[in-house]
Amino acid sequence: MRVRIVGAGYVGLCTAASLAYLGHEVTCVDVDPEKIAGLVRGELPIYEPHLAELLAVAPIPVRFAVPDDANAASAGPPELVFIAVGTPPGADGSPDLKQVAAAVRTITQSLGDGLTVVVNKSTVPVGSGNWVGSLIDDAQPPGARTATVVVASNPEFLREGSALMDSLYPDRIVVGSDDARAIEALVRLYQPLIEQDFAPPPFLPRPARTGRVPLVTTDLASAELIKYASNAFLALKISFINQIAELSERVGADIESVSRALGLDARIGSAFLQAGLGWGGSCFGKDTAALVATAHEYGLSMSIVEAAREVNYHQRARIVERLLAELKIMKGRTIGLLGLAFKPQTDDLRDAPSVDIARRLLARGAKVRVHDPVALPRARRELADVAFELCDTVDSVFRGADAVVLVTEWPEYAQLDWARCAKAMRTPLLLDGRNALPRDALTAAGLRYFAVGR
Ligand code: UGA
Prior knowledge:
alpha/beta; Rossmann fold; 2 domains; 18 helices; 14 strands
């Protein structure tokens, strides 16, 4: 099918690459000419494992264009247009929909005569599908209307760092629309994913036991709510385990055993019960805030989600308090942070715990040194206002440090030469903010080791 994707960010690029791999004809447009020029040269604006490889093996290469050139770049007007632009949080917590409105404007300028299905993939508040429909109607006065446009919601459930595995082998596909033609088009588009009858790319092998993918077809509002409810529930699980971890520390329990046993109950499930510094990234913080804001609009309180947010952001303050309890005086100390990205396998710094923790330490007069295997170039561009020292080597984080905190559990940090690290530090104190380091090896190497909830 002929598909246009508006927005060349995480969601747009991963969706473009996966749909093109399945044999669809994809054009990806973005208002940023520099980004498009880079993509045309084969330079990706984000770090996502296997994205470049997947784009390279698509049977029909994805075409990249700015909106004005989109029709010329493709073989004809699209049957489906995906809106995959950013919806950053506005001042009151509700998502800012300016980019969605701009995307709709460009879509209405390039409609064909046939049926076009406009699909919201960006995470937008409940009711946005109707709003997009009305914007499209406004852009085509009844007398001048030639195109038939129907709106659908098709939320994404992809995780940064494993976005392509999640795109090709999803747990479920959700398609919502109040128009049967939109549902029919999306089901046709996703048929290879639903049936799982495509040959997997060698670098993204199909996980064992992947069967036919469940498809949920529903109305617009339900599809929109499914996205928020899913992210809020995952966020809730993380905050729940983090609160239990705090209690674990007080009563002398080990959160790793508690979490494992909890997760073995099939009704609970083991995923998203890893205690640590809590969630960051562009989704959970923003989406939980938006869900709370939507509930308020309807006179409801989403108190359980509000509590999860509070617990989450408390983890960042808590680690600084623990450092303070150990070091007593923060002024003049040097603290090292391992990891800057909000999670491993990405260079995304949005709502990253590292930045929050660094700011708190700097405000208390400490010097902060940070390393990350992939996010340093992005940090140099986006975080010039934070007075931390960005280190190209892990060694420089440990050298002369009074404490080192593991913030992002990149696998390479679990395999350091601990004796050498301990020797390089002024005080051999290590706080494992993700419970990801080999405790025995660290203590054997002479480090004082603290973890979360144990
Ligand atoms: C999340 C959801 O998992 C996706 O399903 C969803 O599509 C996406 O948001 C989105 O709305 O776009 P993402 O934010 O990329 O994906 O990453 P996750 O793997 O969910 O991790 C989120 C945060 O939770 C990370 O900071 C991670 O370190 C933290 N986390 C995760 C924990 O602290 N404990 C856990 O047990 C799991």
